[in-house]
Amino acid sequence: MLAGWLAALIAALATLPSLVHDLGAPSLEVPGSPSAAAARLLSKGFPDLGDEQMIIVFESSAWRAAEVGYLRAAQTALAALAAQPGVGAIHALPSTPGQGAGSLYVLAGLHGNEHARQQRLPTQRAVLQQMLARASGGRMSAYLVGATPVFSEVRDIDLRDLPSAELVALPIAGVVLAMGLGTLGAAWMPLAASGLVVAVTAGALRLMSAATGWSLDTLTLTVACTVALGLGLDYALLTLMRYRQARGEGADPIAATASVAATAGRTVCWCAGAVAVTAASLLVVRAPLVRAMAAPAMVAALVAALAAVTLVPALLAEADRLIERGRLPWPRGAGQSRRWERWSRHLMRSPGRYALATGVLLALATAPLAGIAFTINFDRPSLAATEAGRGLAQMEREGVASMSGVLLPHRPGAPPVETQALAAALRADARVAVAVAADNGRDLTTLTVLTRVAADSAELRALHKRIRDELVPHLLPGQRVLIAGPAEMLADLEAECLSRLWQVAGLAVACSLMFLIGAFRSVVLPVKAVVMNVLAVSAAFGLLAWAQPGGVVNAVLPVLVFTLVFGLSMDYEVFMVHRMAEHYRRCGDNAEAVRAGLIGSARTITLAATVVIVTFASLFIAERAETRQLAFAVVVAVLLDATVIRLVLVPAVMRLLGRFNWWLPGCG
Fold first, then answer.
1. Closest CA relative to residue 558, chosen from 549, 545, 547, 575
2. How far is the C-alpha of 574 from the C-alpha of 572, rounded, in Å?
3. Both 506 and 470 in a single domain?
4. Residue 523 lies in a domain
5. 524 and 473 housed in the same domain
6. How far apart are CA 220 and CA 590, in angstroms?
7. 1 belongs to a structural domain
8. Are residues 135 and 179 in the same domain?
9. Which of 172, 330, 399, 600 could form a disulfide with 98 if both were Cys (CB 3.0 to 4.6 A apart)?
10. In a domain, 653, yes or no
11. The whole model's pTM is what?
12. 3-state secondary structure (DSSP) of residue 483
């Protein structure tokens, strides 16, 4: 068994160089959305503009843009760029009021799918900048700005953040484990198992990517590795604690290992199944950015469960004598059990009072949800030091903050659409810097619109709404209109994530209910579990809204956090209720089963939750705001779930429900 895991680790490590090389940036596209249809129409109507358009920002403090040397250097650099694979037509954009004397903006088309564009970009950028530096004698700079350049910078930021986060999480988790388990010998095993789970999960994802052509992006890898680390620690910890319990009761290593397989092994499999079922609900979202999270979470849960039921028992059997080595000088085991026993007896005497108090606390935490606002933006602080970020900042300073394409298709062979009135109306809008018309001579007329407002701003969305709902219907009655550009891509991604949230939540709840009914042989307990999980997620988002300026939260987070927290909460529910069910089947006394289950699982849950909190809290060092928001939401949700909900509200409610906890139609 150990040899098999060692071989898997070696194979996984061998894939890591190619994994890092082939990683893509997070995708903005939403297949089937209006922005995707507009991009296809523009690519078909103007093939030279490619599948995406980026802006090349030239800047010089030594030369003016009209000088011969400036123009010659720019032309030389652009000619070198045009010769690169994947580069289409290149057109200079008209100057705008407020544009700097040393600034020039050029439009370039990019061919290929998202992954191909991202892979080619570093070479294209290097060629442009090297030729420009040579031709201008270092007097000019050039930046590439657009969806691919910006999100390629995001990719590089994520690649820096992920190893740093893991390096922070592992040693702190080791300290937490040593303190919670009481010996250094016991702490190393979950750490070793979780490290192996992370590596094997990453290797499995690389093989899936190679076999299916699926493009793995950095955000997906970050979430996958963090989930793998958290679940690997959790499941290994549960297995280890059950093993130590069996050894403490007098079982020899072989018998203890068998006991672990019969108890913790079954619990771990149910837990991993709960995570996989919840993660599968992400498949209803059309956006690849979200949809791609499902497989990594499912793979991480599977690998973590396999490690807990095969690798960890094998390690325990081989290293039994090491577990109690390096004992730390504070009480554990019996002393901690006595504290949990006192708490359980106190809670069982006043369950109604504690249920009411925790309910009020969670309601207060949820209250800020009323003021939450969702959006997707470029996260300028994290991009400020990057080339794309500097180019974007220059564009916004000079009033060329974004570019949109207004597409007006017409019958093949018909005259171009008359756009003079529409262009004049747009130029009269304070948000518009330039509006230039063009026709492909066949079936498509376009207006290229340079705006003073940013692509991720509410002002540009309002302008697009005015074009669609007011200007075109009034000035061009009956004319079909589509709008292409990054602003529409962001708007469609936001709309897709938010509109699908209820489908994801409904599917996760329904699947979890069916799954837990089979696990617990009860109807009441699964319903209670789902309600508690929803409370944890709602309270976490309420506190996230309270912590963010203006209550603004990234629109992708609700579906991701809901599935992550729902799956982790199911783990703790299974940890606790399986213990309670074991006692109830033996004694038939609900109050005693609840009390014994709380005593038997409280230490495991608190220690496992602390490890997960440490794992996700390590993402607080990330440069990207959405990564930090994700970490905050998961940390708060797990903290509330493992303390207020799991150790107070759940046992209090189960005490109040009595024998109804175990009711299943047709089973008495």
1. 545
2. 5
3. no
4. yes
5. no
6. 43
7. no
8. no
9. 399
10. yes
11. 0.86
12. strand
- Return the CA Rg of the chain: 29
What's the CATH number where 435 sits?
Answer: 3.30.70
**Residue from 494, 654, 460, 500 nearest 573 by CA:** 654
Q: Distance between the two ends of the chain, CA-based, in angstroms?
A: 43
- How far apart are alpha carbons 135 and 75 in whole angstroms? 9
Taking the C-alpha atoms of residue 425 and residue 448, their distance in angstroms, rounded to an integer, is: 14
Cβ atoms of 609 and 359 within 8 Å: the answer is no
Instruction: Choose the final residue of a domain: 435, 455, 484.
Output: 484
- CA-nearest of 232, 221, 228, 227 to 160 is 221
Question: For the chain, how many structural domains are there in total?
Answer: 3
Same domain assignment for residues 501 and 590: yes
- Coil/strand/helix, residue 541: helix
Residue with tokens 């599948």: 51
Q: Are residues 597 and 656 in the same domain?
A: yes
Structure tokens at 645: 């909900």
φ, ψ for residue 409, nearest 5 deg:
-70, 150
Average pLDDT, the chain: 88
Of 484, 504, 527, at which residue does a domain stop? 484
CA atoms of 549 and 542, how far apart (whole Å):
13
So what's the pLDDT on residue 572? 81
Domain with 127 in it: what CATH number? 3.30.70.60
Q: How many residues does the chain have?
A: 668
> Which residues is 407 bridged to in the sheet?
446, 482
All residues at 6 or more sequence positions from 190 whose CB lies less than 8 Å from its CB, including other chains:
177, 232, 233, 236, 237, 240, 312, 611
What is the average pLDDT across 151-174?
84
Whether residues 643 and 517 share a domain: the answer is: yes
Q: Residue 467 in contact with residue 483, Cβ under 8 Å? A: yes
Q: What is the dihedral of CA 487, 491, 492, 495, to 10 degrees?
A: 180
- Note the pLDDT tens digit of each residue in 614-642: 988 988 988 888 889 999 999 999 999 98
Q: How many CA atoms lie within 13 A of 99 on its CB side?
A: 22
Judged against a pLDDT cut of 90, whether residue 666 lies above it is answered with no
Residue of 397, 437, 442, 394 whose CA lies nearest to 415: 442
508 and 654 part of one domain: yes
Beta bridge partners of 553: 374
Beta pairing, strands 373-375 & 552-554: parallel
**Mean pLDDT to the nearest integer, 477-485:** 94
Question: Residue 154 has which token pair?
Answer: 């995001």
Distance CA 498, CA 502 (A): 8
- Taking 60 as the threshold, does the pLDDT of residue 668 lie above it? no
Alpha carbon distance 478, 647 (integer Å): 63
Q: What is the Cα–Cα distance from 25 to 379, expressed in whole angstroms?
A: 15
Beta strands in 321-376 (DSSP E): 373-375
Measuring CA to CA, how many Å separate 332 from each of 183, 233, 240, 298, 514? 10, 20, 15, 34, 38
- pLDDT > 90? residue 184: no
Give buried/exposed letters for 79-105 (b at 16+ CB in 10 A, else e): ebbeeeebbbebebbebbeebeebbbb
Q: Which two tokens stand for residue 633?
A: 């939401």
Q: Are residues 125 and 252 in the same domain?
A: no
* CB-based contact 131:80 (threshold 8 Å): yes
Place of tokens 């912590």: 547
Angstrom distance (rounded) from CA 208 to CA 508 = 24
- Long-range Cβ contact pairs of 457-462 (< 8 A, separation 24 or more): 457/401, 459/431, 460/402, 460/404, 460/431, 460/487, 461/487, 461/491
Angle at CA of residue 288, ends 110 and 162, nearest 5°: 90
Amino acid found at 447: L
Judge whether 635 lies within some domain: yes
Confidence of residue 331 (pLDDT cuts 50, 70, 90): low
Which range marks the domain in which residue 283 is found? 151-371+490-662
